[in-house]
Prior knowledge:
It is a single chain. By secondary structure, this protein is α/β, with parallel strands linked by helices. It folds into 2 domains: 3-164, no CATH class; 169-230, CATH 3.30.1370.50. 41% of the residues lie in helices and 15% in strands. It contains 5 helices and 8 strands, in the order βαβαββαβαβαββ. Strands 1-3-4-5 form a 4-stranded mixed sheet, with helices on both faces. Strands 2-7-8-6 form a 4-stranded antiparallel sheet, covered by helices on one side. A hairpin with a 6-residue loop joins β7 and β8 (226-230). It is elongated, with a radius of gyration of 18 Å.
Amino acid sequence: MSTESTESTDLDHVEETTSSPDAERVEGSEAVAAAAVGDRTEEERGDVASGDDTGAADADVATAVSDTPAPAAKPSRRKALEAEGDVAADFLEVLLDICDIDGDIDVDIDGDRASVSIVDSEEGRVPRRLVGPDGKVLDALQELTRLAVQTETGERSRLMLDIAGHRAGRKAEIVEIARGVIAEVKETGSAVEMEPMTAFERKIVHDEVLAAGLRSESDGVEPRRFVVVLPASG
């Protein structure tokens, strides 16, 4: 198993904990082991928040003012994000070893957050059951990893975890859907309500709408919260 660190450009909530890092890692190992053999987890019961920010970050009203991409993290912030990624990678390596699961770990910086991916390795494929139905097991593992990082660093983590390219593939799908709605709003000049999405998916839509020069806002109540795409003001 290898850990690779790369850099790129491209942000949820986790409860504070007073547990020791070792205790967290033991608890995390048990959680992933349960997921790997198909046991029900809290996330599978809908008890763990999914995707991207569901609290402060899902006060997600995006008003487009420019196409300028988000600036890269400052040097000091970049070092902190690299440290987050390294802690997460170490934690996940332990879990994979305990569960005897194949997979390599890639560490990246995506905009202003650490991004960690478990990918197929030369030894074998990552079991897709670690993603789970609708990505629910993945969401639970992401929260667990954030908790481990917070325990180690003392700082709230917003890192994103992907497994076997699940989030990357879903992001591409959402981008295409968003672009279709954007084209419709530009053509008709009328607002369009989209289907309910997770916070992770809504964030993708808001970013696309912002880049297109339109406005968007979230409405509704979880788990059926959705994005409304509106014409540019004025």
